[in-house]
Amino acid sequence: MDLRLVHPLFDRVRALELPPDTWVIFGSGPMIARGIIPLENDLDIMCLPATWDWARQFGPLDYLETEGVYVISIEDGAITLGTGWAYGDIDVPELITRADMIDGLPFAPLDAVVAYKKIAARPKDALHLKLIDDYLAAGHL
By mean pLDDT, which of 19-23, 48-52, 119-123 is the weakest? Predict the structure, then answer.
């Protein structure tokens, strides 16, 4: 996609120089990249186990109790890396293969975001699903 991502967190992700084809931005990140929602909290990165082990040099290991997963926390949690997702059965290699490249960064496709948001069913997810529907109805991919 031919979008320019201007938030400093995207530059920080680039600066990590994670190995290509081993990671993908997930969570709300694909919505942020497409301008559906603003970047208000953090960026979540799903990666292969070897990349996650390598990336441990960038930040501490944190346990997210509400999600029941371990993540590498960078920039005080503004960027998190994990190998699994708390909601649904996420096939990380498949997400990586299907990633949409936006301004040089890999983002999970919106259908994967929709699937996990339906399973997570948190308060913010209903709004996010509506915003994605509106975005797609307007002819965006």
Answer: 119-123
pLDDT at 29: 95
Supply the Cα-derived Rg of the chain in whole angstroms: 14
Q: CATH classification of 21-137 is 3.90.198.10, yes or no?
A: no
Q: In the chain, where are the structural domains located?
A: 21-137
Query: DSSP state, 75?
Result: T
Closest CA to 30 of 41, 14, 44: 44
Tell me the whole-structure pTM to 2 decimals.
0.93
Of 94, 101, 44, 7, nearest in space to 52 by CA: 44
| Three state DSSP letters for 26-65 | ECCHHHHHCCCCCCCCCEEEEECHHHHHHHHHHCCEEEEC
